[in-house]
Queue: 4 jobs
Job 1
Amino acid sequence: MLFGNNNTKKNLTPYLFLLPALTIFTVVTLIPVVRGVYLAFMRYSICGSSFIGLCNFKEIFADPIFWKSLYNAACYTIVVVPVGIIIALFMAFMIFPLPNNSQSFYKAAFYLPGIASSVVLSLVWSWLYEPNFGLLNYLFSLVGIEPLMWLNDPRTALPSLMLMALLGGQGGSIILYLAAMGGIPEDIYEAARIDGANRWQQFIKITFPLLKPTTLYLAIMGIIGALQVFNEIYMMTFGGPNNSTITISYYIYRNGFEHFNFGVASAAAVTLFSIIISLSVLQFKFFNSDVQY
Amino acid sequence: MNSKRALRLGEVLKCLVYLLLTIYAVISLLPLFWMFTTAFKEGSAVISMPPQWIPYPTSLEHFRKLFSVSSIFRWLFNSAIVASLVTAFNLIFASMAAYPLARKQFAGRDLIFWLIISMMMIPGQITLVPLFLMVSKQGFLNKYMGLILPSMVTPFGIFLLKQFMQTLPKEVEDAAIIDGCGEFAIYSRIILPLTKPALAVLAIFIFTGNWNTLVWPLIATNSELMRTLPVGLASLRQEQMVDYGLLMAGAAFMAAPMIILFLRFQQFFTKGLTVGAVKG
Amino acid sequence: MNKFKTVFLGVIFLIVIVIVIVGINVQKRSSESKTGSKQVTITYWDYPQWPGLDNTDSSAPFDAYPKAKIAEFEKLNPNIKVNFELLTWQGGGQKLDVAVASRQSPDIVYLAPVTAFKYARQKALIPINDYLFPEEKDDFYETILETGRMENNYYLWPWFNVPTAVIANYDLFEELGITHLLPKGDRSWTMDDFVKAAKAATVDRNGDGKPDVYGFVLEGSGRTYFNNMWVYAFGGSLYSKDDREFTLDDPNGLKALEFLRDLIFEHKVVPVGSGGMNSATATTMFIEGKVAMMMDSPALLSKIKVEAEKPFTPYVVQFPYLPSRKPVSFLQSGGFVVFRSDNKDREKAAMKFVQFLTNKKNIKSAQYLNVFPARRSAGTLYSNDENMKVFGRMIEYGIKGGLGWTNPNAGEASLVIAPMYQAVFSGQKDPKTALNEAAKQVRKILAK
């Protein structure tokens, strides 16, 4: 045998498979991340950086806007991730039994808008939310509701962004659920139907449990994405009005690229990272199960 | 009596489902619809408040202007090469990495998995400058390598495939092991075909994600001939007098290939494709 | 053995792909010249300013003019080579930031003051003082030069600037028979006359109790720098001259806010929804004839021609002044910055090119954008256009300092000031309360 005893082979082969991915990772992701994180303990300047220990962390923890940005990101995540997953699951549940043609249409309708460039999306949504001429306020006026200031009012700005994500941002999740549902063999449903289970019971007892890995994926990716939400704020609200939509990612961007204060930005990023990884580990512990048939 | 009522209820439910789906679909399609119709509108009607929904009269002037820009097909070519290669590399490397993480037990498995996942938890703003420095030092600026290398393998691809591969029954490998197949054969001939739906989804996600990105290709290229489509189109915009017609024509031009790609690939995860995977 | 072969073949396949990728690359970046003792290569980045050589062909490329100027310059200076790159308005700022942060900045970029000061604080720019005194200093308008000054150093070498004035819908005034209320001659007028004209132009045509035409419009959710102009007109200032202290809440600032509130609620010449008014809506209302006068830059004149269904004759007037004071104008300006490099020859060559781009002849290119050159010696470009001449007169009244541009926290502070106007214009808060609350918040931000 080429590789000595079986045990070595058992431990070595997986690493061979992982090799290309890990090599590239180390070079393009791990090293820049380490370099970036390193800055969290430095005072950055173009001429050179100097080590200042935990000063950056002290600075951000004393900054009320840092906490506000964390709070905003948390609110956004708590609403968008669970509700988004429920919406995606519900939509997939409704679409899956449909004939193939209808399925294709709805799949396209929900996913494709996500591929329009961010410029288009922010233009259209800015118009939807426009206080004087926007579609939403127009619809409100038809039904007799008071118009809202949407993105211009500190109280409604963040909820407006949440609504945008829920209504327009679930395409990928829906597609993923549909793909996962497609991977469940028909025979299992057959067996359940013979046993007398109706559609709802089939869903609860078969589909949902078998979708757990997908749900876990969406939950973790969702949290990772939602806590780092940036594009919409960068294109539409700039953190305002009154810091009501500043999220931790925008705080990092502002400190890094507007003030060239990369030390502070990195410190905030490290803090964010600690939060995300703790949440993810927790989620895995509670919800992971090696799902087998 | 009972069955008739159940039938009617079923019908009502079905109608409700279609209604709900269609409403959601209409809201969802709004941006795309506006983008395409604006691209065909005549010059002055382009940005009116409230917006004009049906382009009348229609005009091809924006597209004519778009195609008169000399480098647009070069940009299209660049985007196509970069996105295709990035997608291909991701499919290969991510599936290779996901396979042992999903199906095998070995020393350090969880550590490697968490290392990979944790890379997604650092916001891109922090890694942008170090990454640029590294790419620049290697001499990859303004080359295809500089555009492809950073996106060659993404953590979320590995994660997605791992979750999917996990759900495949253990039995599918057993037959192959009995036959004496090597690891690579199990991976390539059994697991990979069964992962087709997830691979198709990943291909779509990665291709569309890469096709649309602006920031990295902008930073990593210097010359007009190396630009990708989003960057090239962005360079057609002035600050004050934004030509929305041209902008939307460009956006429509950029979106068209992705729509075609999606329609082509989404058949891979329509229902009914994995029947008999176990019993067969 | 089988697996080994497959893996081996796979690796070969990948290596082939990599070679192919590297092979079909285009190397457009010309290398530094090895010959010649004093050969210098500099890089010039700029944003798309106008298509073609003179903005007459809208399908011409945006780099035509820079490239033409480079060709001229290189002929005159054979030992200097200039590489040009066209940035994009979207994302271009970030590209420049990354380049500066990784010490690979270009030599020359055309920037707005706030961005320039960001780099100046990092000591990435060279001050242009040595090149400025004494010949040039008098030729450039003082108000424009001042926008590029931080402490004792000037960092922006000016090219063009965009003044602000008030544009009136002359046809509307004619229809209402009140053209006599508009100023003639040099078109300057007092605040009282302005209010009188605005009142006369606010009419209720269909008798439903609500005005169909308003005399003026304010943007509560739009361009805050236009709202700030009123503060300076009343003698107030956002910040102290050195940009360190916040001074908006001094008595003059309060007077300005009260005046604006009165425009909406007492004289009723401004729409009540001005709290939520953004620039797009305000402009649309003006172009559709629902607002009689609006403050803006010359860009609005082009918009009227292009976007109006029924184009009307614009009549530009100066920004109104208080009898005890002079008029003010907000100058949107920019300038060329030159980045520090270890090679002094590059800095000198870069400045030489910048001076070439803004010499008496070339600086007149400002007219392609319908804006004004920063040199006095460039003369009056728009001698046939009375409207443009009024804009030109406003350059001398540019706001000098106290706008906060050199203060790194001013950007964050502006996120507090904008909602303050919003609250006052919508009547949610009275000027005194809004001002005091905003001042408290801003001072906290500035203390960082």
Note: The CA atoms of residues 77 and 226 of chain A lie 5 Å apart.
Job 2
Amino acid sequence: MKKLFNINWIKTLVSLILTFVIIQLLISFNIINSYLQSTLAAICINIILAVSLNLITGFTGQFSLGHAGFMSIGAYVCALITLRVQTIPGFILGVLAGAVTAAIIGVIVGLPTLRLRGDYLAIATLGMAEIIRIIFLNMDSITNGAAGLSDIPQITNWAWLFFYTAGTIIIISNFIKSSHGRACISIREDEIAAEAMGVNSTRYKVTAFTIGAFFAGIAGALYASTFNFIDPKIFGFSKSIDILVIVVLGGLGSISGSIIAAVLLGIITTYLQAFANIQMILYSLTLIIIMIFRPQGLMGSKELSLSIFSKLGDRFKPKKGRV
Amino acid sequence: MSILSVKKLTKSFGGLTAVSNVNMEINEGELVGLIGPNGAGKTTLFNLLTGFYVPTSGTITLNVNGTSKSLGGLRPYIICKNGVARTFQNIRLFKDLTVLDNVRIAMHKNIKYSLISSFLHLPSYKKEEDELIRKSMELLEILKLDHKKDELAKNLPYGEQRHLEIARALATNPSLLLLDEPAAGMNPAETAQLTELISWIREKFNLTILLIEHDMSLVMGICERIYVLDYGMVIACGTPDEIKTNERVIKAYLGEALNNA
């Protein structure tokens, strides 16, 4: 058992390093040019957003339409800090402060709203995100209102994005595989049975909501630092929907699904730029077609793992006598 | 000593009194049946005992290990932590999870490692998770479900789903087990098997059991005492033989059954 754990850990580490090095090389040789680099950043940020929303909606079963609200908190807090401390420590502090602030708001919002179920919760979280947006819009002296914050120092690069994206994926998938994570999943499966089996459903719903808000805050902070401009419009209702689309498309309850969907939609968006006029029509058509043929999402609730490849490999091996 | 003591318990929904002035004493180690015609308030009583309904009036007291605790109005998960487990009339398994996960979730309340440990899979995570799998497998072996540990709960045959519900309830390590119609939908052979299982787990886990059942062969066969509920009130209480001959019970409920038989 112990040995198996170590092998898996090494496999994960090797594939992470490989991903990082390959893309770093592509950037160094300018195969990924500065335009594609911004696509890459957007994909990373979307992965963080989708994986964290998947924890709330896909695994814990709480339908949230307010993820952009938490993202905006991370973005504004990080932007305001890095505008004053324009160094790498300032950036690290900004991301952390943004994420923690989003998580605190997550607890405050979660405690009353998570008593609601399904559609009602969706409406409440939607309202919450709108309130946050309006607050940023009207705090002129701090957030510069509708004009937004510009000239935010651009500190993120591929290394930072990779660090935060990989960190989010590892932490959330570790959480899902723990007893606390299973408690969250049991709420999605049957809240009444979960309570009867000793799971404090309120506590775990708020926990999932808070962890999700924390990582949405990180994503927002990275957004501010990558695109060096933010205004309240960016974090409107449609942003929350965009994130939800990635989660549903990838499969509710599949982390690898969210990652695949974020990458796929990022690439599709980039290549559709060539058809500027009908871009949104093609994008929507793609979504409709995928949903018709894969209503459960690309991955359903399954995970893509290295063991799939070894299973495929097993088929071609000579069969040994099994007991 | 009585492990569960219910006094003057009443639950009304608007004008309807579903459970009315119920008194009930269950002694440690007893196997007690709860019967009554449809709509008599049996499941409502279970929901009151397990915290899904808040009593309108009356008290529920649980005495475990020499300490007594009032359960009325507590949240279900707290009542579960105090040692009361239940199964459901209409099976409520975590359908899309594996057999092993169903049992592991019921053991969650014993987990002591922190959220941080779950994020980073620290040594405490590893140690407790290994222990959790070991204990779950032990329990599944006892209920002969160990060979199906990776099967999704919804793919199990009906009888095994009932068994898994019992396994899951046992996983919470209860002192008092409430079974809500465990034999519903089973054929006579399966019911006989279940009867055996219930008396066996009672010995093995030192349980006190309260069960709702319509199947008289099961109730009369294993219950030491029986409470009869009608229109939310206890109309009789006694040994199976006393209940069989009780006139009020025959009038309300068993009379028809005996005539048909």
Note: Chain A is about 75% helix and 0% strand.
Job 3
Amino acid sequence: MDVLVCVKRVPITGGRITLTPDEQDIDTRYLGFTVSPHEECAVEEAVRLVEAHGGSTTALTLGPKAAEDQLRDALALGADRAVLLETDSAEWDAGATAAAIAQVVRDHGDAGIAYDLLLFGNESADAGGYQVGVRVAHALDLPCVTGVKHLEILNGTAAARREGPGGFEIFEVALPAVITVKEGINLPRYPSIPGRLRAKKAPVERHRPERPAPGLEKVRLRLPQARDKQAEMLGDGAAGAERAVEVFRQIGVMPP
Amino acid sequence: MIVGLVEHDGGVTSELSLQMLTLGWRLAERLGVPLTALVVGAEARPAVDGLAAHGVSAVHVAVDDRLDEYAPGAWAACIVDLMGRERPGAVLAPGSDRGNEVMAHVGARTGLPMAANCTEVEPGDLGHPYLLTRVRWGGSLLEEARLHGDVKLLTAAPHAVKAEEAPAAGGFSVEEFSPALQDKDFRVKVARREERAAGKVSLSEARVVVGGGRGVGSPEGFRPLEELAELLGGVVGCSRVVTSLGWRPHTDQVGQTGVRIAPDLYVACGISGAIQHMVGAKGAKKILVVNTDPQAPILAHADYAIIGDVQEVVPALVSAIKQAKVR
């Protein structure tokens, strides 16, 4: 079973976001980067499926040259191959991103690598467009289930469970298929030392796709109005408990 | 014309759909065009009449025997069919899981861009882009963007616009139609459902949530938090680092990629306050922070604070409540 898993490089934002002076980006001078949370789980799911069924995992990202770090993170977790669709700093919208990914899948197909499963995160942590996986599925004429929190593959069929109104919805689709996952589908492992060493040396397949004109075009970013509160200090340590009980009474949560 | 995809649960229109219609009728009013609604499946009929009060002048009911269960591709095909016949200037859907999914399919089928989770929409002249505001980072950041395309496809961010009633412009009509659907549109369709286990109060609906972060120290460290939650009739939640460490299941996670809570009181223990956590707790009416660090970012969100170690403060809260009950 050959799995392609697509990830995105995003900053680790911490407690407060600061924008660049031109309001085009988050100021990342003092920030680290990571793989978007849903996609971290997508990588883990890919590696687990390949451990169970055999085959290979290919990790792909579209982003700046530095996004190679996130591919190496995926390799360290157990991915076998890595593909970087290198861009300049301009943001790619979902339509452009999906078209570039679909082209790689077609090219790999022509070269004899036919993926059984394409895994995505349900939405990226930063842009949150909710559509790259769906658009790739359409471009390749594959079925697509989104928001999946439990996945089983049996005899060429994927049973995918997700949260729905009042409970869970289960979809069954024939492979090849596109599945977008949500955090919680698994608990990603920590990379092993040998995994990290292997990832360091692994080759990365590189392409430089052309960016088409965006259909959804970022003008600027802004922060929602800050509503910084001045917290009422109830005391230090255990001494704060008594006033806390008064507060619980005031706001009506004390048990009768 | 503006079209809004209306979701319903057992014939009751969803709250997020009403919010989307409010964004929709304001947009329609500014453009001087009617707002119409699309509902999918015959069982949506009970929801239809109530839409007249939400600025909707016509409802299109997509009818087909195969539309008995949710199928994202088929729902999108219904919209594309309606777009071909009615030529709307924009199609809106609620920013729910389904709304975003269906509109992604519509965008993919038509090759049009789609903007998810919009909070404000500024219409352009005919043939020009819309200028809109949408949420990023689960709501911690806003993006102003131009949305291109002959038909503007967008979803309304949950709880960004309050649902308001408006009289429909010029009458109200309901029309059933049979969209052109192919078998392939149904290859992804709900095969079966599982009910959620009943009984326990869910995190998203709890009146009190006692949340723990790394500062709780260990999986066992959550015991006093559980006791406090039980005394206050609430449930325990946690931050992402806690689930990553394997201390609590992901179902307990509050935040952008976990559960969004809206309790009367959120007691946040040993949580630093990363933005991804705080967007999940935005609905909390009051926040009490227990933290050793008086400079922690979460203090900016706190109504009340106790500076101290979780393992000292939370047991003290438990015994103070017990004593208050005895008196």
Note: The first strand of chain B starts at residue 2 and ends at 5.
Job 4
Amino acid sequence: MDHLKTNIIPPSRQRETARAGMTWIGQSIKRVEDPRILAGKGGYVDDVVVPGMAHAAMVSSPHAHARIVSIDTAKAKALPGVIGVYTGEDLATVVDPCPSFASPPVTQHAMCIDKVRHVGEVVAAVVAEDRYIAEDAAALIEVEYEVLPANVDIEASLEAEGDAVLHPADRESNRALDESFSFGPVEEDFAGADRVIKRRLRWHRSSGTAIETCGVVAQYDAFKGGYTIHANTNFYNFIPFVIGGSLRVSPGELRLIPVLTGGSFGSKVFIHKIIILTAALARLSGVPVKYIEDRLEHFTNSDSHGSDRLYDCEMAVMNDGTFKSLRFTVLDDYGAYFQFGVGTHGNAMAQVTGPYRIESFAMRVIAVLTNKCQQGPYRGFGSEVTNWVMERMVDAAAEELGRDPVALREQNMIQPDEFPYMITTGNIYDSGNFQEVLAQAKSLFDLDAWKAKAAAARAEGRCVGVGVATCMERSVYGPTEWWFLNNKEQPGFTLTSTPEGISARFDPSGKLFVTLNSCMVGTSPETVVTQVLAERLTVAPEDIVFNYADSQTGFNGVGPQGSRFTAMVAGACITASIRLEEKLMRFGAHLLQRRVEDLELRNGSVAVKGGLEDQAKTFAEIALMSSFFRLSFPDEEEYDSGLETTAVYDHPISAEPDPDRKHLGIFYPIVGHICHMAAVEVDPETGKVEILDYAAVHDNGTIVNPRTLGGQVWGGTANGIGTTLTEQFVYDATGQFTNPNFAEFALPSAHEMPKNLKLGHVETPSPYTEYGIKGGGEGGRLGAPSALTTAIEDALRDKGVTISALPVTPPVLRGLIREAEAASLAAE
Amino acid sequence: MNKIAIELVVNGRTREATVPPRMLLSDFIRQELALPGTHVGCEHGVCGACTILVDGEAVRACLMFAAQADGAELTTIEGYGTGDTLHPIQQAFWEEHGLQCGFCTPGMLAAAHELLSETPDPTDDQIREAISGNLCRCTGYEYIIDAIRSAGKKLRAQQAEDALQSA
Amino acid sequence: MKPAPFDYHRPGDLQGVLALLATHDGASIIAGGQSLVPMMNYRLAQPDHLIDINRVAGLDYIREEGDALVIGALARHHAVHASPLVAQHLPLVAHAYEWIAHRAVRNRGTLCGNLCHADPASEMPAIMQVLETQMVLARDGSTREVPAVGYFVGPYETQRDDDEMLVEVRIPKSARGTGWGFEEVSMRKGDYAWAAVACTLRVVDGALADVRVAAAGVDDAALRLTSLEAALTGQAPAAGLFQDAAGEAAAGLDPPASAAVTSEYKRDLVRALVPRVLAAAVDRAR
């Protein structure tokens, strides 16, 4: 793999290795975050009330694509209780377009100015004394539209001309980006292959759809610090830097206060548009403004729809089953804007070849603009799709080669002694033992027994099948690949180490006050930090107290995304612990009249090694002395008052892309591995799928808290079940969003989940992160669609059904069965 | 639009208010009574996050008008435990990791209360049925089911102990 | 999503309700509100006057009157579902409730309200037709009875006039030896039906008798499949007969399609579900 020669794996900076017999790491302690939430005192964005607060309601576009001819706000303005009514042109007096990570960007305004480009886009806003009145006034606003042709179909949109082009000022066509990437000897590998497996695969859009929508409370004071904003964004420390320009203030004049967030799954990573929108309304109206998306607005205008892709895929294989190369052309329907460019494809290239040895890869990605809500992150950030594509191709290869699909996987898997393993795109897999994960899954699920049961059931005419997926779960992202994704002339992106920090301070009573710089979105930031600090410092978990910094009082923090937070914050905890330990030891040594070398941390105290209880000073004693009684210590700078530190952890192992674009660098190197197995029964007459049995084995390195990791696995699996069986945003031919509600867009309920989930873990520690921790926030959704698709196909094997698109809702699956039955009748 | 005077008992405390007829009970609880533990997720009666107990029955607060609650007895998430202790069902949710983001939790707790008051020792299928009208996007429901099963055990043990003591 | 303003009335007796209906145009009755309030929150329904019948005493009955069970306007779904009388005399109704919505909705929603809302994908309008229920409609000064068959005329549309209230339904008890069946397919359990089929029948001297089959979700309103019933009556029950009859019934339907579900799929469901409910009913009839 010559093209990887410039990509050197940096040495490990790990300070704490995984070891047996740890006290806190590896324990399923109860979450620190929970009691206040269970008592109803969580503090979500809609719970924020500020004096004088008014409420905003939006007028949303009923059209997929139209010119705004006129907006008449007179009746709305006259309604008692209305404070102000604003259009896109009003907003433009105080804000500039939204930030974009695409280069060159596609212009997006927080409120439409000239055109609407999808149903649900905001064309006017009302600020009123309460939301009821605001909605009354919104209903009185009359907007005249000139309807333009709507682009709905992913392929047809590429051919659109004239009025059908979404952004004529930015792009001549609806092709937002068309880039090709190639790694390793793709042409040679295909030329030398015995067979080329070809499939056309389709992945339809859905989204994270958290039960809490997005919301903002914004205040503006020109004389006192500018904007003060509460918002349920995941990324509040970074947001001021990306939206300050839009709001025409410096980041320092923009204070973002984090709130407890009611679920994200990626969908609340930025939410910058409604932050800009609400902030502008506060500035224009002169009063604090609350805007909470209602469910309809969240569905239609949240900028967080997930991947929507059409693949033409080819895999080069040898007759002995060896995988050689993979290449595809993918059309991705990004909707009306392009906020992250093709970031979701860059993400996927971290693990695009799966757990297999595949030495070359090529992709052409064509980003298509259509008249739909734009894409944003959703659990997997594109990798969930390529995992499914990879596993579909492996199953197709097994079918064509007449091989057992599991054996074929085993034959091509990277071996345990090959790590760190650099894949052809330049990313590395730090560690793993895919064989052990598979072996544990086989035994947990009892694969052989299920295969026999399924075959017996099929012999009786029932449609029972088994599916196995072996997938990667990249974690701890370091987005160096972004630079690579935009076009070569204007890469427009500088590399970051995605730092994560904490500050920690022993108060005089010995409580350890920890300030986090990332919010809680359903993850367990306080619990993780508690377990790591308790492990490293021997501090009692109940002595740790948490605060969340805001964007002005805090510092570096990137937050929960890309399955990064646990591993990254653990690094910050270790740095903080090392520094606090040094201080504790120094003060403790003086108080005990011992040399530091003779002391150790033990049960929340500095103690003489091997000494008795009375030869120790508790952290509380040391904290009291060091905080209040400076004069009891030597007159040297290192004894200055206080026990506190601020610690930032930079990504432990990222490397830059090759300047000649031969590889992407190391950007998502801490890889987990997952194996999901499912048994299903299909009712061929109705297309309904019942999941009979389900097992998941995950290797997320050293586990901090098995129970919270289990929660992530099953939550992600539920998302994956929805993605596979029930969830799709359906736009009709005119661009109307036909199911923007929870009655018709069907998240799985408790009834749709398998009744006998079996969870297993393998722990292959990362050599790069502290304690060997890997991320585990996305895995369920990264594995479930593949396992279920294969199981359903297996169940319908006698009917000759091939599944090439998700979701397979009952009507879709029944349609496939009907077609297959008709084809087989015709063949007779 | 007439205004309606109402009087109701919320978490044991009598509250009086005058409300516009269209004010949803969910908004009344959150905004007028300043009890934000009841969450609003969809306002069309599907997600179940706003479910509370009205006269002991689980009810969608987004599908009732505050005026209709005149004379009723309401229990919200703030009213299950005492001031400084969690109710056994809440405790079980904590122990079993029955919540992640916590947004669906108030509704789940209401559904669990109703179930366990009628069926102290429910089967897993009965638990599934009881919470099937409450959507959770975080957990996949598995640990919520564990939590409700465990809560049943706690409540039965507590009842047995109470019975023993009164005997 | 907040409702538009309305005037609120909460009469204490039935006469008060009927008087308000007689004098107020654009009035809606609210009982459980489980279908009405979502539509009001979306502002798809904007009644000028909301007449809340929840304060009317004595409307929540479920009682025996001769050969019928009579269910009042305020009987909640859950009360009907849990009623021993219903379990004894209307096992089809008790069973079908397993598929209808969720507990919190059933706690508040009413059977009569559901029948007034008349969602074409709702189950009870089909079941009431199978059971040959009589709908008792009252207006200020008069009362009339309308058979459930024919009552549901279109999506969200019934024979009830704007100034009328459905005060009760009278459901004939299932006769001894009556078998019943109910099947539904929806995306999730508890969702509105893509298709639901209900039936009752008897087997007399080895032949099918009193066959009544109705379907929801497959037309503008729930409907009886009368030609299917005719084709089966007098025949000996057999899987092949059921399949053929189901096929013909399906072919005779033109179900409205949506973006997610085709007409063809709904016909497939009728083809699949009809034989299942018939077989279940025959089993129970024996």
Note: Chain A has a mean pLDDT of 96.
